[in-house]
Write a structure and sequence with these properties.
- Helix content is 42%, strand content 16%.
- It has one domain: Aldolase class I (TIM Barrel, Alpha-Beta Barrel).
- Strand 3 and strand 4 form a beta hairpin.
- The protein is an alpha/beta fold and 274 residues long.
- The chain is built from twelve helices and ten strands.
- The longest helix has 18 residues.
């Protein structure tokens, strides 16, 4: 269970800590952030475009306002260790990927937007950390190529079925792709959900998703493009508690009569009423 904080912290370490703490309390196993070198990911032309935000009136000011520095990540790294929850990042450029290696996180994540960047995939897979790779906007041939790169570097990979729409309507989720990807690639397949509700992620787990990643927030009405597709605390608790019950409820599929059923049978079976 991965709580995707992403950039929902809105540039505030204190909000990030609250989200980390909420994720821990709700029962998530890890939290995830995003990291970009703004001058690499975006052109000057794009960064100079107008955009109203809490940080100013340009795209540059908005995107810089959402970025944590390495020093801020050091503080969050310490906080996660203190409360006992894993954390990791999805980087959006090679420079960020190299910089974030200093934290020695347990996992890597490749966002759907980076899944076709060959040099980036080579860099990530060279670390040989267990990696979650999102497949939104990807064709089979593009996934094939990414898989081949990770296999070549002997790097463990979990594919993440996702639909890159924020928020995504339920009829577009196509959750059966979880089974399709697992059958085609013979590797673990998880689900990264961008819908507004809880139930699709539960369905994904029942279909066999090995991990679930969901965006989380303090308040959906906060500033940010991901907030509306995120879960608040009540939804976070509901999601985790329900998914944790699935193995207990599904059982092993072997037909058997329980001890309690034997007692019931002694009272209700036809022969017991003679």
């Amino acid at each position: 269970m991965i709580a995707e904080i992403g950039i929902n912290h809105n540039g505030s370490v204190e909000i990030a800590k609250e989200l980390i703490n909420n994720s821990k309390e709700a029962g998530f196993d890890a939290v995830k952030f995003q990291k970009r070198e703004i001058s690499i990911v975006y052109s000057d032309e794009e960064l100079n475009k107008p955009r109203e935000s809490p940080w100013g009136t340009t795209q540059r000011e908005q995107k810089m306002g959402l970025e944590f520095s390495l020093k801020q990540y050091e503080e969050l790294d310490s906080f996660c260790k203190t409360i006992g929850i894993d954390w990791f990042v999805s980087c959006w450029d090679e420079v960020s990927q190299v910089k974030m290696k200093v934290f020695k996180t347990r996992y890597n994540k490749v966002a759907s937007a980076m899944a076709t960047n060959i040099e980036f995939l080579k860099l990530v897979s060279s670390e040989r950390k267990p990696t979650f790779l999102s497949t939104g906007m990807c064709t089979y041939s593009e996934i094939d190529r990414a898989i081949d790169i990770f296999k070549a570097n002997d790097c463990p990979i979990t594919l993440m079925h996702t639909v890159s729409d924020y928020p995504c309507v339920e009829e577009d989720l196509n959750l059966r792709c979880i089974n399709t990807l697992a059958e085609r690639y013979k590797c673990p397949v998880g689900y990264s959900g961008h819908e507004t509700g809880v139930s699709p992620s539960i369905f994904a787990a029942m279909l066999g998703a090995t991990c679930i990643e969901r965006h989380v927030t303090i308040d959906r009405s906060m500033y940010g493009s991901d907030q509306s597709a995120s879960l608040e605390m009540a939804g976070m608790r509901q999601l985790v508690s329900t998914i944790r019950k699935i193995p207990h409820c599904l059982g092993d599929g072997v037909k058997r009569i329980t001890e309690k059923e034997l007692v019931t049978a002694s009272k209700l079976r036809y022969w017991a009423m003679q």
